[in-house]
Design the sequence.
């Protein structure tokens, strides 16, 4: 089972709903996924330094808008050290509305699941217009 954590900068209801849909798909797909909310599992305001090692040990992936995880040296080193897979969504300057968040993740869900098989650690960033780039 591959755990997918949705960061608290996305609505936790997105994780709940996506998990319901994915449970249905798990009956038909070879790879099984469980979608969880970081806010619900680790608590509101959990520090990245607390949850990254745990998620990494679980061989999980994370979906987040927090680009600081990639740009802050110690956080970047931490996710790499623990072998975490990360998908960054770069929001527009005015942020995403709730439905835009849902749309962004749903539109890319199949690709996220496919890329989750990549050798860890990895990081991909989705830009506003939908392009994806691999981060080093």
Sequence:
């Amino acid at each position: 089972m591959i755990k997918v954590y949705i960061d608290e900068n996305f609505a936790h209801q997105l994780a709940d709903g996506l998990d319901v849909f994915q449970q249905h798909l798990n009956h038909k797909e070879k790879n099984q996924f469980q979608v969880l909310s970081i806010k619900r599992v680790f608590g509101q305001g959990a520090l990245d330094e607390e949850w990254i090692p745990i998620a990494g040990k679980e061989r999980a992936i994370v979906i987040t808008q927090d680009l600081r995880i990639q740009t802050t040296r110690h956080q970047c080193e931490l996710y790499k050290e623990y072998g975490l897979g990360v998908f960054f969504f770069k929001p527009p300057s005015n942020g995403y509305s709730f439905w835009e968040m849902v749309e962004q993740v749903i539109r890319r869900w199949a690709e996220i699941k496919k890329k989750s098989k990549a050798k860890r650690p990895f990081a991909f960033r989705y830009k506003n217009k939908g392009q994806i780039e691999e981060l080093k």
